[in-house]
Every structure is written in C-alpha cells, then in structure tokens.
Amino acid sequence: METGRRRLLKQTGMVLGLLVLSPVSGLISPLTLLADSFPRPAKKDRCPVCGMFVHKYPHWMAGYVFTDGTKAFHCSPKCFFHNLFHLDKYHPGKALDDLKVIWVTDYYTARPVNARDPEMRFVAGSTLVGPMGWDIVPVKGLQCAETLSRDYFGQEILAFGEVTEEHIQGARKGGGRVTK
Ligand SMILES: [Zn+2]
Question: Distance, CA 57 to ligand 1 centroid (Å)?
C-alpha cells in the first residue's frame, strides 16, 4: 500500500520531469494541466486496446476522463481512436456523452491537449511510427500540421471530427497508410 506522501513525491517527480522536457513552457501551466484537465497515467495503467503500459510512451499517449471520474489511458492516438469508435466494447455501459475530457499529446510540444480543440489537426498516412506502428498524428495548429505532413509524407490533414474508423483501420492494418 502506497502512502500519500510517496504518491505526492512521485507526482512531483513527474512534474519536474515534464518541466525538464518542456523548457519553453511556463511554470504554472504544466502544473495546472496535470492537476486539472489532463491526468497522467500511473505505472500500472495499461492501454485498454493493446494492453501496453501507457507511461512508457509520453510522446504518444492519449486518454479520456468520463463524467463519473473514470479515466482511460492509451499508448497512442490509434488505440485512443479505436476505443472511441468502440466504447461499448472497452467501457461497457458508457457512451460518447459520458466523456468529459478527451486529450491527446501534441506531436511537437509533447504536451497534452484537448483533442476537441478547434485548432487540433490529425495527420493521417504519414511515415511517422508510434508505439503501435503507423499512426494518426495529433498536431496543434494547421501550420504545424502542414509542416509535419510535408516532412513525413502525410496523406490527409483532418480535424478531430473528420477522423473516421476507416482512417484508424488503415493505420491498424496493411502497414498503416490509408488505403483507398
Ligand atoms: Zn495501445
């Protein structure tokens, strides 16, 4: 059984780690993000889709917070979207309306961001490889998405609501590039 003090020390360590990783970010915002909107996975948290330990993939992780406080952590955008399209399978009894927070990791800053932020873009069909192979890469801002798409041969730049099950299946099968 872990004491509250040890947990606190661990969390502080994670915060410091994040600050070191993000030298350009202010001191306040990462703390606020961690405390409020975007929870970080514990070492024991596994991706519900593939079973991998999520904390090993800080540059790709994504998750949900349901209205009842339940949290889900995924190793990658691909597993995150796959779960989203099959919530009834991985979270029986829960529906899209029960999702309070949906977050992904911005590729360039490695920081958690609201997946439904109107500025978020998702680059499909690029040559970038995540923990599960080819993926749909979250990037904040159209300009950054265009840069990523150009540098890594992306096939499509999508808003959150434009990502379809077909895109995710494309990333899960056949080498991951979107096949049409
Ligand atoms: Zn996964």
Answer: 10
CA distance 116 to 104: 9
- pLDDT given at position 37: 77
Which three-class secondary structure string do you get for 67-133? CCCCEEEECCHHHHHHHHHCHHHHCCCCCHHHEEEEEEECCCCCCEEECCCCCEEEEECCCCEECCE
Report pLDDT digits (tens) over 152-169. Answer: 999 999 999 999 999 999
Rounded-to-integer distance, Cα 30 and Cα 36, Å: 10
How far does residue 17's CA lie from ligand 1's centre (Å)? 23
Query: CA-CA distance, 56 to 30, in Å (whole number)?
Result: 19
- Distance (Å, whole) CA 135 – CA 178: 10
Alpha carbon of 102 to ligand 1 centroid (Å): 16
Any idea where the domains of the chain sit in the sequence? 44-172
Kindly list the distances between the CA atom of residue 67 and the CA atoms of 21, 70, 120, 131, in Å, as whole numbers in the listed order. Answer: 30, 7, 22, 28
